Each structure stands twice: as C-alpha cells, then as structure tokens.
Amino acid sequence: MEVPSTKHIFNNCLILSVISTIVIAQIPQRFTSQNPCTSKGKCHECIQTPSCAWCYDPEFGDSARCFQPSGGVTSNEACREEYVLNPDNIVSVIENLALSKAHAASGSGGTLVNTLEGSYSQNASFSESGSYSGRSGMAAGGAAGGGGRIVQMAPQRLNLKLRARQSQSIYMYYTQAKDYPVDLYYLMDLSKSMEDDKEKLYSLGDQLASTMKKLTSNFRLGFGSFVDKVVMPYVYTLKENLIHPCSGCAAPYGYKHAMTLSSNHTQFAYMVKQAHVSGNLDGPEGGFDAIMQSVVCRPQIGWREQARRLLVFSTDASFHYAGDGKLGGIVKPNDGRCHLSRDGLYTESSYQDYPSIEQINLNVKKNSINIIFAVTKNTISIYEQLAKSVEGASVGKLEGDSSNIVELIKEQYEQISSTVEMKHNASSAVSIKFYSRCLNSTGSLVSTNKCGNIKVGDLIQFKIDLEVVKCPKNRADHFQTIQIYPVGINESLIIDLEMLCECDCEKPGDKYYQENSRYCSNHGTYKCGICECVPGAFGRKCECTSDQISRNVTTMDCIDPKNPTGLECSGKGQCVCGRCDCETRNNDNERIYGTYCECDNFSCERHDGKLCSGPDHGTCDCGVCHCNDEWTGPNCACRKSTANCYSPEAKDGEAEICSGHGVCECGQCVCETTAEGRYSGKFCEKCPTCLDRCDELKDCVECQQYHIGRLEEPADCAANCTKFVPVPVPEANADEEKGEIKCAYEIENGCRYAFVYFYDENNRFQVRTQQEMKCPDTVKLPAVVLGVIAAVVLIGMAMLLLWKVFTTIHDRREFARFEKERMMAKWDTGENPIYKQATTTFKNPTYSGKDALIPQAVAYYPKALIHETCSDRCPDFKDCVQCQQYKTGPLKDPDVCASNCTKFVPIPVEEVIADENNNEILCAYYDEDECRFTYVYYFNAENKIQVRAQQERECPSKVYVPGIVLGVIAAVVLIGMAILLLWKLLTTIHDRREFARFEKEKMMAKWDTGENPIYKQATSTFKNPTYAGKC
Hints:
It is a single chain. Helices cover 25% and strands 21% of the residues. It is α+β, with helices and mostly antiparallel strands. Residues 1-33, 71-75, 102-120, 122-145, 826-830, 850-870, 1006-1016 and 1027-1031 have low confidence and may be disordered.
C-alpha cells in the first residue's frame, strides 16, 4: 500500500476536515447522544468502555473507530471483521482438588455442582455463556484431595483475564472437614492480679484438653505468658525490685514462650504450674508485644500449615499500643518480626515500641489466626472495640478467677468453626462482591460474604462477581494476584488476574505498532490504526507541524456548523491544524471531547451531589445522563417501576397507585390534599385529620391478643381477622420516622392497652401489641384499715412484751447478785432467838490486871478475831457507816452522828471486796430507800478497827409505769399513722404516673372522633343552590 506524501496530505487537510464535519453532522442525534463509544479516541479508552469494540483496520477511514458491535451504525459495517478488537473475559482453572468430606444434604448444603478444570470465555453481551472443558474437581463425599491433604475450598487457583468495567462471575465452594486440626496457644497475663487465674488454669488443664478433643481429635495446646517492658515507668527498676517486684513474684519480663504447641496436655498443666507471676507499675499490660511474637514466630510456636489456629489472650487489664513506648524512652517502631531467644524470651522488648493495632491486624490476617480475647468484666468493652479492628477476633467474658475458661473457649470455638466469612486482598481497582444461599438450598442468592450455623460436611456455594472498576496507571499493576480466603483458615482461592486495560496493538513489538511510521507522516507512532504524533506535529496523520499553523489553517473548520456564531472549539479547546485540541482537566476522570470539544462527561445533572445519581444509576456522556435500566429522569434519580407505589395489603385487581390518594413519581408516592385532609404515609394510606385504622384493627387485636371484645368467640375471631397476627411486645411504642401509628384504648374495667401498626421493609402489614393489659390495682379499703389496726395492736403488744422481758431479766440478775453477796456476808446471829454462841467465857476473880476476855473454846473463828466479843459486829457499825458515808439512816443528823461514831471513819472505795486471808468481814444491807450498800471491817496491826465502805449506794432505777404505758400507746399510734400516710403517698404517686402515661398515649394515638357525640368536623361544606355548573 502506497502512503501519500506529507505535502499531499496537508493540501487535502482542509477538504477532509470539512467533509468529516459534514459527515458527523449528518449522523442522527440519537446515536451521538446515546452511544458512549463514539467519543473514545484511543483503543485502550474504547475497550475500557463496556460493550464497545475498536477497529484497527488501516483502511477504515476517518470515522470513529470505537463502536458498538450491536449498535447497527456505519462504523460496524465499514470495519473488516478480522480487525475488530473486542476482548472477552477468560477464566482458566489451574488447580481444583476435591473437597474433603463434602456432602449435599437436603435442606442444608444445597445441590452439589461440580467445578471443572479448563477455561471458558465470556462474550461482550454480559451473558455467562461459554463452556468448561477438562476434568471434574469435586465429588460428593470424596476423600481428602491431594494425597491426604485436607481441602475445604474449591477451586484453589484460577487464571482470569478481565476486561475493564465488565464483571465476571465465578463460583467457589466451602465445606467444613471432619476432625480439622486445631492449634490452641494460650497466652496469659501473669501479673500479680492474675495469680488465682493461673492456679485455676492449672487445675482445669486436663478438662480443657478433654473438652477440645470432643470437638476435634487432632488438637494441640501451647502456652506463653507476658507482663510488660522492663523499663520505667512500666516496672520498678530498682535492683531489688527487678529481682522480686512483689511478694512471691518472679523477675519481670516482656513476653516468654513457655511451651510449643503439642498434643502432650500433661505438659501444658505442668508448664502452667511452673510459671511464676510477676509485678509491674501501671495498669495496662504489654500484651501487644506478646500477640505479635506469638503470631509471627510460627516455627517457634509450632503453628501447623493446615490447622485452625486459635490464640487465647487472657488478661484482666487493658493494653499498651504504638506510641506508648515513648514514655519509657523507646522510639524505635516495632518491625513486626520474630525476636525470640532460645529460652523463649522476647529480646527486643526494651528496644522496640509496642505494635500498632493495624500491625496486629495485618499479621493476624497474613497468618490466618483467630484471636479470642478472654477478659474480665471491667475491660470487656475495650476489647470489644479492639476486636472490631482485628480480623477474625472475638471476645468472651472471663470470671474473676478464670473458672469459666473451658466453657468460654468451647463456646468461642464453636462460634468460630460454625461460621465462614470470606475476605479478599484485592486493590481498590478491583471490585469483588459475594453472593450465597448459605444453607437455604431453595432460596435466592443474597449479597453476603458470611454464612453461619455450619456443621461438618455442609456445602456452601459462593458466587463471586469481579469487576475492574478502574485501570491502574502503572502497567505493572495490570497483573495482580488476588487471594480470597475464609477468615481464620489457611486456605484460599488464588486468582491470577490480568486486567485487559490496553490493546496489544498499543504495545511495542506488535504488528500494528510502528514508530515514526509513514502512515503518520514520519512524525508519530502508528498504534491500532491511529497516529500518536511527536511533539510539534498535529493532525489525524501528524500532517501538521508548528511552523505551518500560522499560515495554512483557517479556524472555520473548528466551529460547529450547527452553531456558526459559536466559539472556536466550543470555547473549550484550541484549533490546531484545522482540528480542535480539547482542554485537559485536572481530574483524570473528567474529559472534554468531540469534534468541536462540544462534549464532556461531568456537566450532567447531579442528585445528592452525585453525577447522574451515581454510577449505579447512570453515566454522563456529552452532558446527558444515560440511565441504567431501572432508572429514569434527567439525573437518573427516579425509578421506572411503580411497584413501590402499591400497598401490599391491597387485593389483586383492586390495587390502586398510592391507595388512590396520590401519584407515583420516581418510584415514590406524592400524596394529595383533599377536603377531608392531607394524606401521608408510604402509600398515602394515612390521613391525620381523617378517621384512621385504629378502630378497624381494634376488634381483631382484642380477640387475638386478649380474647375479649366483640369478636371474643374463637370462631368469629378466626373468620374476621385474617390479615395479620399481632406480635406481642412488653411496650408498644411507635417509631414515627418509620411511619408507625400508635393506637391506645381503655376498656370498661379501667384496663388499658396499646398497639402499633406499620409496614415493614418488605411492605408487609404488621401489628405490634402490648403483651399484657395494664389494669389499675383493686384496693379493698376495709381490709387495709383492719390490717393497719391489727398491725398497730400487734406492734403495741410486741413492744409491751419486749419491755416486760427486759425488766424481768434485769430483776432476776439483780436478785441473783444480791443472793450471792448475802451468802458471802457475815450476818448478825444475835437476831436468831435459838442461836447459841460458839464460845464460853470464864472470869478469874483473883486476876487483878486489865479485864480481858479469855476464850476457852473457839469453834469457828481464828484467835486473832476474838477481842471483846466473838459475835458478828456488822450491826454495830451499820448506823455509823450510813450516816458518815451516805448521810442516811437513824444517825443521819450530823451532830448525832458525830457524837456516836468516834471509833472509826469509813474509807470510801469504788468496790468493796473482803480479803479473808486478812480476816476481813464483809457486811451488806438495804436501807429505807431500798438502796444496797456494803462495807468491810477488820482490825489492823495495832488492833484498831478499820472500815472500808462502798463509795456510792446501788439504788434501783425508778420505773414510771403510767409514763411507759402512755409512751407505748403514743408510739403505736404514730407508727400506724405513718404507715397509713406512706401507703397513701405511694398509691397517689402511682395513680398520677399511670394517669400521665395514659394521657400521653391518648395524645399520641388516633382516637375515633366518631364516638364523641359533641365532635364537630374541622371543615364545613355549603352548597350554592343557584350554581348550575358541574357538581
């Protein structure tokens, strides 16, 4: 093929420009405004537009090379078929091992659909047509694939060539294998406050192992502990504190790996017992350091490649995180690597900062580990927030002594293993959506990436839609490896993705890629049938150069012939060599295009700030919104369907748009205003000033929920109440934002009830009703009065009885005390008429000395006590003791007392006690005031009488019986009145609250104005008898 010379091309440039302008102007408006392909000027732009194809035929001409193959436009007919570039999505199955223990139980796993190894392609019409070829990769009930390898996901690897902005669906299967291995690493806070928890874990070690073995026979257990960084201010750094930070504590440390994962469960209990608690200063612990090392040190911990990995984190405190290390002078960030010594100690604890939450999350995802935070009540809210930021993490409440740790781990494991949640690591350039029926084999697909209540052998199918939403600028990013994986399981579907974002003919080395091509006047690169000019050259075939612009070009070729008075290049570009060079926007997603720069993709109408209401509703092309199938309107904000404007309660054939009280606009009802009032509600079914549906629903609510009312008979209730079944709730409260209406009623016996009616999310009519009617308490006044009187009498009698008991006890104690002292005292024997002295006295008439009493026989008294007489002298001293010490008795007159009492002066003492070893005699008497007094007399060494008397008499307290009786009666009356007053106060408060609540419900409810005989309508209608127009 001979290429014309540059001079010849330039001479015909103006003619070609005019012809092309006329041709484009003749294209019907419906194609230019609705065809998104014609504006694409380059091959990669064309194939990144759904349903567009590119023609790279060298002999195609100057028409738009980007076209819709099914559009029927001229471009499609002019391009030879072998030069049409319309890439399809291509899926190739690389690895697809059979699932382990898969089965398809009716109603649980759904029908098993085989996946096959091979490849298929998808055509440009977005159907999923195509075919697989190859061998089956799944069989129901098959054994573990890959020679004993446990397989829970299929397929395992795909190769996908995906065209930009064109979705592709693939199917993936998941099943839970029987006896899937479990690795459980117990990471425990061993600060001093967890000492009792350690002892409890030691005692429960065997129980934990046996419990987990019931869930899976392939179970291994490991153990590690942590405290905090050994620097201030986290721990005491004094020498003695670094050795023994607290009583019975070992030296502090950051993290210590004690036991590698093992099936030797006896060793686990032994290692827990051998671990010693330690102490630190501040509240938070260094648990993040321990988690990071437990996760990344896989060989040291012993994590298996194929196992469900559980990390149980047990503590009663919060945690330090990235940045807290600065308090201790540690500024080096955590590197997220393993730093364990041979002894299992974390060697970088005092040199690297704590890891961040995001670092924990990334490494947990990378290593497929489920963290179970077993924490106490005071910190559970903190760890619930943390679990939201760590993939696969869960939280359980730990008792103060960890006594429920076995139940907690079992519960969390069952929750984790019975749920599958799919995640992916795709970049923002790729959109991935998950759909599944989960265990509902007959249901429809639901947009979800999570299924629960899965048992061993259940088969779950996921439909995965992938779409390249934007092409990365870097060509190397067009090739990505995407991993789709279940959270916490080290298995995945790997997709080797190639984004079809550019054409092969735009790449060097292709037949239709020529640099300095003669097709481009040797001033540009020929790519896919068009020229990309070098700097300084312009035109379709680079036929214009900068030195020709000023003398050979007319601007008329750059003015839209439909608007001869318009601006050059529509004011949005420059006329270069007879063609418009449109401006470039700062935003890469915004473009100005068209022969005269008359089009753009950013000036369409917006809704809620979104262009054409967002990409889900439509796209902007040449200033016009092109809506998707379900939407319409200038900004694609209106739904085409009127299905949302019909009340779901209406019977077939009787349904009216917006209940006959409005019009359907943009898929929503716009309600009308009539003489009766203004209608509202989702289906214009409500009218606040009209009679509402409360009365219509009242009878059915009464008979269905309370079995009362006009339809009390079950047969009548069943026949008339078929539209709804009320849902009982403790309190029937209406959410006005959701259009709920509350109705309240009171029946004859004063009982009140309320119910709410509304339409749910599926447009179904629903009624919530109060579970139990609230009835006023029945007060039996006679019973209350008699009860209060009886209570007052009983209380009075109880108080009198109590007083009598106390006084009787007091009297008996006093009498017993008196009897004891009387037995100890020496009473006057002279008062006894039959008493005979124990001694006989004889007088020697020949003795001329001092008269003396010579005892001849002493039966009972020592010789030292015999003076003038051997009789008891208590009565002799009694009167003198009374008058001298107490100013009482027969000698109480001071003069009489002074003249008769000269032998002794009593010595007052607090308590009188007789010393029998000193021959002291104890005397006790009651005086005329019934007061008791005691004294002791004896002879001193000089044979003189001595007396010690009790300092104060012991007088009984005087009891004023009338006062006591009157006081008891007054107290009983006051207590009775207080009880009556309190009862009256409580009943008044309760009644007022109930009345206020009822008034509030009555104001919120829609009452039937027709039942009020004095009700008058808010409007009045008059008819003009002289008016002859339309009624």
